[in-house]
Structure to design on (424 residues):
C-alpha cells in the first residue's frame, strides 16, 4: 500500500464509525471538513517539498557567491615516443568564470625524480572574456624514460593544473622471421650389383643377372636396362621394364650375353645403362674371351652352371621363407640338376660333343628357372590372416551370446519376484 493513500483510508474509517462522532449533525459536518482539509495538506505536501528544493538549487546556481574568475585547462600530449624523436603537444586554457580576466599558461616536463627537464611559458598575457580560450604549442625530444608533462593555466590569481605521462622507449625488436624449413627435395639413387669380371669363350651365351636396388628415399619409375653397342652383345630377357620401384626395394634383371664365334681372344668391355624417369646409372663388365678346346669348354660350362645352381638354390629358400609358391621353381631346379648330372657323366666318359649338347639343354632350363625366380621376387603377397584368428572370433561370439542369455534369465527372475511380492 502506498503511503499517499493512507489518509483516505483513515478518513473513511472515521466517517463510518458513528460512535466517535458527536450526535450534533452540524458539529459532525464541521469536523468532517477539518479532517478533509488536513488530508489534502498531507496529500500535496511531498510534491511541494520537492519543488521548493529545486527552486533553491536554481537560485544557488544563478545567484552564486563563487569566485568571479575561474579557468579550465586541457593538455594534449602523446603517451609514447622514441628516444631522440621530436614529439609535439599543446595546452588550451579557457576562461570558465563569469568575469573578464588576464591569463597565461605554462608547460613543465619533469622526470621520475621530479627533476625539471623542460619549461615553457607564454610570451605574453591574454585578455579573456568568459568562454574565451588560448592555446600554446610545444615540441621537444627526450631520452629514454618516463616523464610527467604538467600544464598550468592562470586567469588572474586562479590556477588550474593538469598533467599527463609520456613514456620514451626504444621500439621492441621485431620478432625473428619464422624459420621455414623448405621441403626436402627427393633423393634418387640406384645401387647396382652384378659380376664385374667374366671369363667367356668364343660363341658362348651366358645368363647375366643384374640386381638393381632403389637406395634413395623416393619412388623410381620406368626402370629398364639399355645395352650399349660393343663387340659383345646383351639381350634383356626378363623383365623388360619395371614401372615402379619403391625405396629400399630391389629387382632382378635377367640378361643374356653372347660372344661372337669369330671374336679374337682378348679383353673386352660390355657397357650398359640402367635408366629410369628420374635417374640413370652406367654399368661395365670386363670380359676375358678365350679360345678353349672342346674339353675345356665343357668343363668351364659345368662349373658355371654349378655356380648358378648354388645361387638359385639360395634364392628359392628365401622365396619359400617369404611364403611364396616356389613349386615351379623347384621343379626347374631339379630338372637342371638332373641334366647337369647327365652332362657331368658324359664329360667323365670323354663324350664332349654329347656333353656340350646336354649343357645346351641345361642352359635352356636355367633360363626358365631364373625367369621364374625373378617373377616370384616381384610378387607382393597380401597380408595373411592367422589361421587361429577365426576360431578366436567364433569363441568370442559364443561367450557374448552366453552372457546375453544369462542376463535375460536374471532379469526374468527378478521381474517374477517383484510380481510375486505384489500378490502376497
Amino acid at each position: 500500500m502506498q503511503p499517499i493513500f493512507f489518509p483516505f483510508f483513515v478518513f473513511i474509517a472515521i466517517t463510518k464509525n458513528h460512535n466517535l462522532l458527536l450526535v450534533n449533525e452540524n458539529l459532525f459536518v464541521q469536523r468532517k471538513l477539518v479532517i478533509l482539509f488536513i488530508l489534502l495538506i498531507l496529500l500535496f505536501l511531498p510534491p511541494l517539498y520537492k519543488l521548493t528544493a529545486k527552486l533553491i538549487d536554481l537560485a544557488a546556481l544563478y545567484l552564486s557567491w563563487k569566485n568571479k574568475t575561474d579557468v579550465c585547462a586541457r593538455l594534449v600530449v602523446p603517451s609514447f615516443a622514441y628516444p631522440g624523436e621530436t614529439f609535439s603537444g599543446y595546452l588550451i586554457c579557457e576562461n570558465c568564470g563569469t568575469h573578464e580576466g588576464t591569463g597565461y599558461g605554462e608547460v613543465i616536463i619533469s622526470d621520475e625524480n621530479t627533476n625539471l627537464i623542460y619549461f615553457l611559458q607564454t610570451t605574453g598575457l591574454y585578455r579573456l572574456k568568459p568562454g574565451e580560450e588560448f592555446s600554446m604549442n610545444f615540441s621537444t625530444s627526450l631520452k629514454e624514460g618516463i616523464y610527467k608533462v604538467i600544464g598550468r593555466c592562470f586567469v588572474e590569481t586562479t590556477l588550474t593544473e593538469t598533467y599527463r605521462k609520456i613514456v620514451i622507449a626504444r621500439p621492441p625488436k621485431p620478432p625473428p622471421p619464422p624459420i621455414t624449413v623448405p621441403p626436402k627435395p627427393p633423393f634418387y639413387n640406384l645401387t647396382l650389383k652384378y659380376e664385374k669380371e667374366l671369363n667367356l669363350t668364343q660363341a658362348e651365351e651366358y645368363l647375366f643377372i643384374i640386381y638393381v636396388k632403389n637406395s634413395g628415399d623416393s619412388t623410381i619409375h620406368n626402370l629398364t636396362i639399355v645395352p650399349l653397342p660393343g663387340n659383345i652383345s646383351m639381350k634383356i630377357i626378363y623383365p623388360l621394364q619395371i614401372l615402379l620401384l619403391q625405396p629400399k626395394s630391389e629387382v632382378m634383371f635377367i640378361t643374356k650375353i653372347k660372344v661372337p664365334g669369330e671374336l679374337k681372344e682378348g679383353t673386352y668391355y660390355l657397357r650398359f645403362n640402367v635408366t629410369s624417369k628420374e635417374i640413370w646409372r652406367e654399368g661395365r663388365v670386363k670380359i676375358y674371351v678365350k679360345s678353349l678346346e672342346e674339353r675345356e669348354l665343357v668343363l668351364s660350362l659345368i662349373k658355371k652352371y654349378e655356380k648358378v645352381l648354388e645361387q638359385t638354390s639360395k634364392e628359392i629358400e628365401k622365396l619359400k621363407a617369404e611364403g611364396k609358391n616356389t613349386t615351379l621353381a623347384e621343379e626347374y631346379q631339379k630338372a637342371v640338376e638332373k641334366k647337369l648330372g647327365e652332362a657331368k657323366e658324359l664329360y667323365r666318359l670323354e663324350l664332349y660333343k654329347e656333353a656340350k649338347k646336354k649343357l645346351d639343354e641345361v642352359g635352356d632350363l636355367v633360363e626358365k628357372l631364373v625367369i621364374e625366380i625373378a617373377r616370384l621376387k616381384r610378387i607382393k603377397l597380401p597380408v595373411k590372416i592367422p589361421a587361429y584368428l577365426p576360431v578366436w572370433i567364433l569363441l568370442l561370439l559364443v561367450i557374448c551370446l552366453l552372457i546375453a542369455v544369462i542376463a535375460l534369465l536374471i532379469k526374468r527372475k527378478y521381474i517374477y519376484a517383484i510380481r510375486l511380492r505384489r500378490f502376497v
Remarks:
- Residues 293-383 form one domain.
- The first strand starts at residue 71 and ends at 76.
- The longest helix spans residues 25-62.
- The chain has five domains: 3-62, 71-168, 187-291, 293-383, 385-424.
